Every structure is written in C-alpha cells, then in structure tokens.
Records
---
Amino acid sequence: MPPSAKKNLNSCAVRFVPSELQARFPAGTPLLTAIHKSGLVISTLCGGAGICGKCLIRLLQGELAITAADQEALSASQLTQGFRLACTAVLQHDCVVEIPNDKTGTAAEILTRGLGRTVSPNLPL
Ligand code: FES
C-alpha cells in the first residue's frame, strides 16, 4: 500500500525514489536522519545548516512543512513543485520523497590497487 498524506501520530511511512526503499520513522524524525538510516547518501556540504542547497529533495506525495530555510533558499516555484531542503525537513506525515542527487554508491573509497609508478625517495641528508 503506497504511503498517503494521512497524518500518523506515532510513525510516518516514507518511500524514497528512485531507490524504492521504504521505512517507518517516528513522527518528528528529521528527514536527513531518515535518509541516512535508510542507507542513502545525500550531499550535505554545509553540514545541515540550510545554506548550501545540496540536500535538495522533492516531495512527490504527502506533506513536508515548508521551513524558514526552504523559503530562504528556494524559489516560490520550487516550493510549489515540492522541493525542500532535507536538512531542515521533519517528518510529520507519510510521504514519498525523491532524492534527485542520490549519492548512494558513490562514497569515497580507499584505492588499494592501480596503475602506479615506483618512486624512490631522494631525501637530502
Ligand atoms: S545540507 Fe546544506 S542546505 Fe541542507
């Protein structure tokens, strides 16, 4: 059953698109926490201060209240289209959330192999 806009006092069902991951979170959970707990990765360059706009998501179904940071960072057209800043959004209703800049699977990796060249240190004595 798809999540609806119905308010649930105890928990909120969230489906993330395009990953199609679904989970329930207590009402009042920050959306960014829900994203991270779902194993998804989203850019948060300003550390969730509501400044960089890199955590942009789009509400496809349900409700996410428009925050002061949303109003500061986004145009009226973007707000109407459902765009929100994930770092300031708080879950209060069931919803479907698109993460346009999903960085899942692109986390930094430590390279242990590759095409390299041998370099001999030539340290001054
Ligand atoms: S993390 Fe920078 S605006 Fe949300």
Note: The longest strand covers residues 11-17.
---
Amino acid sequence: MRKLTYFIACSIDGFIGGPDGDASFMYPFVDEEFLAFLKAEYPETIATQGRRALGVDDLPNRKYDTVVSGRSSYDVAFKEGITSPYAHLREYVASRSLGESPDPNVEIISDDLVGKVRALKAEDGELGIYLCGGSVIAGRLLDEIDELVIKTYPIVLGTGMPMFGSGFAVSGFTLDGTRVFGNGVMVRTFNRKR
Ligand SMILES: NC(=O)c1ccc[n+]([C@@H]2O[C@H](COP(=O)([O-])OP(=O)(O)OC[C@H]3O[C@@H](n4cnc5c(N)ncnc54)[C@H](OP(=O)(O)O)[C@@H]3O)[C@@H](O)[C@H]2O)c1
C-alpha cells in the first residue's frame, strides 16, 4: 500500500492559515536553511512556479508522485492563472463544483473521494501520495492518512483555519522523526498507529 501523507505547515497552536485560510505570512520561514532541507528531502512539495523560480525544476520526486488537494487550496494558484500547480506530480483536486478539469494534468474527484484515495493507495509504486490540504479535505480524509509531516512555524495565531476540519475524535500517531531549524521551524514526522 502506498502511504497518504498530510504534509502541512502550521502555527504552534495548530492553524494552517488565518481564519480565511491565507497562509502567506508563513512564507518568510522558508529561509535558506529550511529551503535547502525541502529541496533535499521533499522537492516535489515545492510548487512548480517556485521550482522554476529557484532553478530546481528538474529535481526528481523523492517521496511522492501524486498530490491530492481540495478545491479551495487549488484555487490559491488557479486565481493566479496557474492550472497545474504541481506539474511534476499526478494532480487530483476534490471538487463537486469545478466540473471539467481546467488542465490535462489535473483530474477532478467529484464523488467517492475516500474510494478514489483508497484506489490510489492500492496502486503499485515506490512513491506515496502528498495530501496538500486544506482543512476540509484533510478532515474528510483523516481516517485514510497514514503519515503526517508537520512543519510547525514559531508563531501563535489564536484562531485560524484548523489542521483538520472534522469533528472530535482521538487518532493515535507515533513520532518517527524531528528536525529543528535555526529559525525555530520544527518538522515532525508521525505515522499512524494501526
Ligand atoms: N499551511 C499550509 O501548508 C496549507 C496547505 C494547503 C492549503 N492551505 C490553506 O487552506 C485553505 C483552503 O482550505 P479549506 O479547508 O478552505 O478548503 P480545501 O480543503 O482546500 O477545499 C475544500 C473543497 O474541497 C471540495 N470537497 C470537499 N469534500 C469533498 C468531497 N467529499 N468530494 C469532492 N470534493 C470535496 C469542495 O470543493 P467544491 O466547493 O468545489 O465542491 C470544498 O469546497 C487555503 O486558503 C490555503 O491557503 C494551507
């Protein structure tokens, strides 16, 4: 089985963005040291535009070959005219409203989201599936998530968009790795207890 990994940036108090989801105030934490880590370990999580700007568009995928996003997360790039924000991955966007895909590299999942993700997990392959977010889709897919890679930035927001837009339920994970960076960013990796 391929893993579904929720790879996400958040505040100390667990918010992935402001109340409207905007996460642009987190960008300054991607400094030289942290970017070097992302390029080395998770290059495929850098969006296509960013890879081009950094001159690293040819970096091979290391962990994931597929990305799943909710339509609101996809909208962040779409509003800028970018229809394939992760062109180096197979892209799936969950949406009941988008209708036809705006890009040949993007497949819309309009129904049976969990079934589609289970089918992707059941495919053969070395690389896993990157769950990009946001909150709503992570809540819908919580039971399918095998791994969490949580990039915690040293800020407190008080309120904002939660990591999971789902109801109360206790899900156990084991801590499998921690990396701390000079600017206070901490990356923790957890695997689900099954
Ligand atoms: N901090 C980070 O690392 C990070 C990462 C990613 C995103 N974000 C932020 O997260 C925000 C967006 O998150 P969000 O929670 O508002 O939305 P989201 O999870 O990105 O997308 C929600 C949309 O997904 C579709 N959807 C939900 N359940 C579905 C189902 N069962 N089947 C098919 N489609 C389904 C619906 O689209 P339709 O309405 O089209 O049907 C729904 O409106 C953005 O503002 C972004 O900045 C932050």
Note: The chain has a mean pLDDT of 97.
---
Amino acid sequence: MFALASDNPAEVRRVLESGEAGPNDAVGPQSALAFTLASTQLTHRTEMVKLLLAYGADPSALAEHARARPGSRMSRASLESVLRDESNPMSSILEDMDPATRYWLARAEAPQTRRTSALIHRSFFRPLARVRYDLIGQDRVLEQLFRVLSMPSMAPIVVLLCGPSGHGKSLLARKFGSLLDVPTHTVNMTTLRSTHDIWRSYSMNPYEAPSTCTLGEFLIEQEGKRCVVVLDEIEKVEDEKMLSSLLMPWELGRCSFEAGHRHVDVSQVVWLATSNIGHDLVFEHQRERQVPEAPLSREEYVDLMGLLRPRVSERLGPSLLSRVTTVLPFAPFTKEEKLAIAAEALYALAADVVRTMTPATIDSMVRKSLDAYLPAEGARSLYRAVSTQLLDAV
Ligand SMILES: Nc1ncnc2c1ncn2[C@@H]1O[C@H](COP(=O)(O)OP(=O)(O)OP(=O)(O)O)[C@@H](O)[C@H]1O
Ligand SMILES: [Mg+2]
C-alpha cells in the first residue's frame, strides 16, 4: 500500500518483483487493484494499474470488493457487470476511467490473454507474457511469437517483425530483453557501410546510456548465455550483401567476426529484426477483410503471414529468409486500440496536467485526436495529435 500510495511505479514494480507483496493482496478492505483505481489523485495511476495486472492482479476482485460483505456470495463478474451494478462503489469509478485503463482491464479479463500467456507458462520466456501490458493490440503477433518460443528447437531463434510504421515493432523488440532481464544489443542497420560493420556497431537504444562495446564484444561477453540482439530497420541496410554475415550465426549458432578468428557460440542469442517490408500488404489485407473493425482471427493472421513471407524473400533473399524462424506482420489498430494509445499518449506527455482534467475533458481530447489518425504512421500520428491538443489546451 505504501508503494501504491507513494505514486511511485518503480517502487511498485520492485515490491511485486521481489514478492514482498502479491498483486492480489488486500489494501485495507479492498484489493490493491480497487485501491489504485479509486485513488484518482495519483499521477501514475494507469501505470500502476498496468503493473498490478502484468503481475497477475485479478480484475474480478473489483466485483468482489463490493460484495465482500458478511454473508454475501463472492461472485466472479466481468467489468461490464461491475459497471451495471450501481450498488458497487467501483461502478462510478470504472465509468469515469480513461480509455487506456479501461483497455488494460478488459485485456486482463479476456480469455484470449490467458490462453496466449499459457503458451509460454512453463518456459524460460514466461516473463514475456507481461509485454501484454506494454503493447496495445497486436494480440496475434504475441500469440504467434509465444508459439514459436514454446517450441523445442535446436536452431537459433530468429524473429522478423514486419509491417507499417508506428505499430509497435521497435517497442516489442526493446521490451523483449528487459522483461526477460537479459542483456540486449540494438544495431541500427541503416548505419552499416561494409560487411563487417555489423560486428563493429555500438548499441543504439534511446532509453539506455550509449553503449561502450561493439556487437562483437557483446557477443563474446555473452557467449553461451541468453541475450537479445535487435537488428532495427534490417531492410534499410545500404547493400543487402552485408546481411550475409548473419547466415552462419543464424544457421549454426556460431560466428567468427573476422577471418582467422575463433568461432564464438551465439546459439543462445534471440535475434529480433524489424522492417517495414509488406506494410502495403498489411493494409491491402485489412481492406479485404469482411469485418475490418473486428480483431484478427488466428486464421486471418496465418493467411497474412503466408502473404508476407514471399515478399520478404524477394527483398532479403531466400537463403537468409530460410533461416528465419518466423515472420510476424503487425496489424492495423482497432478503434478501441487507437483510443487506448491516445489516452496513453496524454499521460505520457503531460501526466500532471491530465490529473487536473475532468474525465469528460480527457475523453473528448482522446476522441478528437482520432480525427488526425494516419494509418501509415500508426501510433506516432496519435502522439502528435494529442500533443497539438495539449498545446492548445495549455
Ligand atoms: N502497439 C503499440 N502499443 C502502444 N504504443 C505503441 C504501439 N505502437 C507504437 N506505439 C507508440 O509509438 C511509438 C513508436 O512505435 P515503434 O517505435 O514501436 O514503431 P515501429 O513499429 O518500430 O515503427 P517504424 O517502422 O517506423 O520503426 C512507441 O514508442 C510507442 O510510444
Ligand atoms: Mg521501429
């Protein structure tokens, strides 16, 4: 309770991570989740709600909270039924909730969320299930990713994240290593000028201090251990021949950085590459869907993956692609997802200003920003729209 009341997400994370407190512990008469949702004065409320959910807080406790009177039956109830239940004090709080918090609560409740997380439940990759509270939408991407990660395989894991700008490819790549708590090295592929530059490149992560070691040094340091290498914007490499350095590590799990040097064991590296290849295909596929607003079904996603693979092969060459474990297209956002992204943008850009706004003002700003949505720019167009509106409001 102290961590929550102090409005400090880092401390909440630490407490949950260390197991000092559980996500479903009671805070006074209510659950930690109900307490946080009701604490409307907290600046970092949404972030802490996400953390609680990511660590396993059960939203059905919101219904129980009102019903936990002596003699009354505890019932599992969905958010919808809490909203309808006017005798539940949570109902008016949930009513006023911003679209992002609403989205995260609904996501935690969805059976699809549980099924997908179960795929990696027993594996080393289990902490990745929490990425569902970083990434809005892209459920099918995560489902396919978790399937691949749960399969026993001798070959190195190579995942290609493809599709339109601003849909969360780099975001997912960035969170991957941090959730698993393994080191990550990010190579910006646009900067390479010759074949061996890849091993000489420093990590470029805007959220970390500039790295002082090259990819080659990183891989020697991490030899035989789990780690992540992100190859950002792989198709924008000056000359695709430079990618040939990846053939051996992706096939054999070993590589040599220069002729005459010993081989380094890189079999435990997870390689994540991002690219915009096939972004037009993603939108074409979307236009041809029967119900474009509905979330993608597994069948539709498999279909889209099938369309994308030849396109990637054309661009990066079949010999490289044949060593890629899976190619994951990122899908267009639904309206709910856009609303959630816009609300997150509002908090990310000006949490202290937003705290003083009424729920109606927040809602109207979020909805208005959707008018400026550009599919080809994805979430970035919503961040821009929200920031323009904030400027006008302030
Ligand atoms: N699915 C998402 N959920 C939440 N936020 C997102 C999502 N996609 C994008 N964003 C927001 O937009 C920003 C840009 O997204 P990101 O860097 O992941 O785009 P990208 O898909 O890698 O695009 P590009 O192809 O242009 O590199 C992120 O930092 C995040 O704030
Ligand atoms: Mg990117």
Note: The two ends are 33 Å apart (CA to CA).
